Amino acid sequence: MPKNLDTQHRTTGCALLLLPLLAAMAAMTTGAAQAQTPPQVCKEDVRVLSQPRDGLTLLEKYKDEFKTLSGVSFNIDNLNENDRRTKTRADASTVGKYHVYYVDEANVPLFAQSKWIVPLAKYYPADYDYADFDPGRQKVATFAGQAWFAPLTGGGDLLVYRKDLLEKAGVKPPTTLEEFIAAAKKLNDPANGIYGVALRGQRGSGANVWRWMPFFRGNGGQWFDGDKPVFNSPAALKATQTYLDLFKYSAPGTKTGSWDESTGAFLAGKVAMLIESTPLAGNALDPKTSTVIGKVAYLPPPAPLTGGGYGHGLAIGAKANKTEEAKQCAGLFVAWATSKKQEQRRLAEGQFSELNRTSVLGSPEFAKRYGADLGKALADTGKVTAVNFWQDALWPDLGDRWGIILEELITGSRTDIQGGLDELDAYARQLIARRKK
Hints:
Helix content: 40-55%
Strand content: 5-15%
Oligomer: single chain
Shape: globular
Number of helices: 19
């Protein structure tokens, strides 16, 4: 046999021998690729009922990404907050058109107790790392021992203060309530247009009551013992008196004002300190809204105040997701929409109020944009953030009634604190009695 033919024969023979091995390797490669392809559990586009949020608007850019992941697309219907609450309740209790609902801390008890949404943990894929959410956000998303939504926005409270004013007055940043009250008194300088604090006086469970509750809970106050109201207590009396006293040093307009008035006064440079929800921190760093950039620092609320935990997020609807497969699809959307990747995108877009994950809040990118001191303060306040309100479907009714009484005490049209608390106690008993009928 000629040498070249012998070589060709040996080469051909080797190739033939290698064919099964190459085929096996190809099969392994194909199998690995298939293993890496996420299961496409969805059968129809995911329908979401929400209210406008920058983070959800940002999701629209990545519809193809979700389609690759799930096999379907998604559609988000947005309504303003009040209309969203009304329509969500109507849809969830009747036809169940939407697979995913935007919910908030005030309506989770009603939705969970009514079985309009399902517990999240079973359908939130483990690799999306729910435990990475800020501890305070997790507390607010939890009712009756189970998580019901994945956070899109939320927070607790921060003590936000003017470094320059405290340094000039020789006041150390307060870490206790007693120090906070003393600092407010010393820093109050109305003659020069500076006020020690800014509070919320306007009636409402999410207005004056929201800012009063950390004083109430920090003093050991509780709303109910079972079905028995216990909030007309010494703790509530002390909390209310302290809150009223602080109004001596609060900026003008705040006795009947809410978030806009209190934070607006601070951002305008008229207030030395305030305890407010975490989105204020982002506003204080925004040149479009703040005149105090570079003058602000942050701490957790002074002890023993709790942080006022709140949160909005995405929950899985019960009626529209009749099968386990449908619930898994909705859970996949919720997880993808609230994932670390989405938060990193929101951070890049400067959407401060929609950052909820410890991995993002503690990242070098966050520190570069917002400062390491803010990241630390957010981590510290997450540890003391609490669910201050009564977690019950009747809470908005009870909270709003106390808001009316509290506003009257703040403005002086009512003076008997204990009498106001006793009146609220009687109202709470009526609410409970009506529910039992």
